[in-house]
Amino acid sequence: MCGILGIALADETCPVAPELCDGSIFLQHRGQDAAGIATCGARGRIYQCKGNGMARDVFTQQRVSGLAGSMGIAHLRYPTAGSSANSEAQPFYVNSPYGVMLAHNGNLVNTVSLQRYMDEEVHRHINTDSDSELLLNIFAAELEKHNKYRVNNEDVFRALEGVYRLVRGGYACVGMLAGFALFGFRDPNGIRPLLFGERVNENGTKDYMLASESVVLKAHNFTTYRDLKPGEAVIIPKNCEKGEPEFKQVVPMNSHRPDLFEYVYFARPDSVLDGISVYHTRLRMGTKLAENILKSLGPDEVDVVVPVPDTARTCALQCANVLGKPYREGFVKNRYVGRTFIMPNQKERVSSVRRKLNPMESEFHGKKVLIVDDSIVRGTTSKEIVNMAKESGATKVYFASAAPAIRYNHIYGIDLTDNKNLIAYNKTEEEVAEAIGCDKVIYQSLEDLIDCCKTESIDKFEVGVFTGNYVTGVEDGYLHELERVRALNQSNKTDVKSEVDIGLYNAADY
Ligand SMILES: O=P(O)(O)OC[C@H]1O[C@H](OP(=O)(O)OP(=O)(O)O)[C@H](O)[C@@H]1O
Ligand SMILES: NC(=O)CC[C@H](N)C(=O)O
Ligand SMILES: [Mg+2]
């Protein structure tokens, strides 16, 4: 679930890279594996800095100062397809036609046929296993069809029409055409989020931003903003002091189904996506969860409610309020360890849970504890947490999840492993409780979770991860191919990164 960002400044003499760098920090929670910035300067020249690592490590002051230009895009990567190699860090670039850069959040589910199409029909070489590189080349191939000396907005919208026709999956993208424009577009189901905003400068000119979450827009004073609609695109001219952004509903909206998992885990609580406040959905999740818990546990069965930091805090606090039980920070979080779930391999994930969370014995000793988390996915966190609670002397450990049992792959931009690695795969609730070692597991129902998130205008969500039914469907052989590539990457005895990491644009100092 990557983070994407694009900014065009009215003042063409002002470098955009420092603001992109700062904005990336607001999106770090969406991808910790790789980070990249590309800018476009005078004479359409493109500058780029990208590679594996967190934004603060990749974007050193020295590198950022070399990124010239007033228009640029940024990407924070959490790998879904392909591998976590340096060479798959985004944005991606192709020189023809015109020079195009793309940063993609999401995942395509017809890559098998797209690869064949690239190879057999348009003869474009794809240098990595990344679906985002494929997507960029599909766009470039569509744009090339016009065979024009200079491109205009209509050509770009028409090329996007081709993209919408050819690709299937979840995608929100920001891109740049060298010397011409910044652009953004969103898939026809609005699975992945993308917002557009503007900021009025002192002299009355306007800067523009595209971002995955509203929190970046607000923090950077882009106070007038809105979500792009599913199937909608926007083109912001490079010289945005002189020209206005142009919006177009490129294809009709299919059905608006934001990914429910954004509200459960991915997005920051202070973001509002598609008009829905993430924070308030999480409060409601706490209320509903408590109502559910009251049905299955007696009033004296819980002494204390303990959240699993960080994401579950909002929900757990509200749950404790409704239950009328004390809320206690039973696990102290090491602020220097990032999100565990989006780490690229299981070994790192297991070791970081213990490094990240440490129990406060006094909150567990001799108590019946209700631990609340936002979700149980592979069970990496919950197994360790339950163990720590028991080691610390809890007499009973109940584990409540604000999301229903996760039994299916997430195919639109979350690397939810293959089904068999999900702790709830083919298991009843009792079996999950046994697997993570607790006395009882209580899941939120899907119906209740949807109730917590829906509004008057959006009452349907992408919920394939809970049901196995995906809004776009999946092409034959796709999941099989995904598992094959994953197994191939994991079978590598050494670190996969060193094996496949010889990208085209490696800098000597990486
Ligand atoms: O069952 P699992 O595979 O362990 O995955 C679920 C856990 O992973 C996430 O936490 P994470 O540490 O990634 O981030 P957070 O600090 O935002 O909660 C999520 O909030 C759950 O705690
Ligand atoms: N999480 C994402 O949005 C990932 C984007 C893209 N599929 C990649 O693997 O790089
Ligand atoms: Mg967590």
Automatic annotation (TrEMBL):
Cited SUPFAM superfamilies: N-terminal nucleophile aminohydrolases (Ntn hydrolases), PRTase-like
Name the residues annotated as catalytic in the UniProt entry: C2 (nucleophile)
What positions belong to coiled-coil segments? Answer: none
Q: Work out whether the entry's keyword set contains Cell membrane.
A: no
**One GO molecular-function entry:** metal ion binding
Presence of keyword Glycosyltransferase: yes
- This protein's UniProt keywords: Glutamine amidotransferase, Glycosyltransferase, Magnesium, Metal-binding, Purine biosynthesis, Transferase
Q: Which cofactor does it need?
A: Mg(2+)
What is a biological process (GO) this protein takes part in?
Answer: 'de novo' IMP biosynthetic process
Instruction: Outline the extent of the Glutamine amidotransferase type-2 domain.
Output: 2-239
Residues annotated for Mg(2+) binding in this entry:
T311, D373, D374
Gene3D superfamilies, alphabetized: 3.40.50.2020, Glutamine Phosphoribosylpyrophosphate, subunit 1, domain 1
Q: Which CDD domains match?
A: GPATase_N (cd00715), PRTases_typeI (cd06223)
The record, for Pfam families, names: GATase_6, Pribosyltran
Superkingdom of origin: Eukaryota
**Enzyme class (EC, first level):** transferase
Q: Which HAMAP family match?
A: PurF
Q: Which PANTHER family match?
A: AMIDOPHOSPHORIBOSYLTRANSFERASE
User: Would you identify the family this protein belongs to, as annotated?
Assistant: In the C-terminal section; belongs to the purine/pyrimidine phosphoribosyltransferase family.
Name the record gives this protein: Amidophosphoribosyltransferase
**Organism listed in the record:** Torulaspora globosa
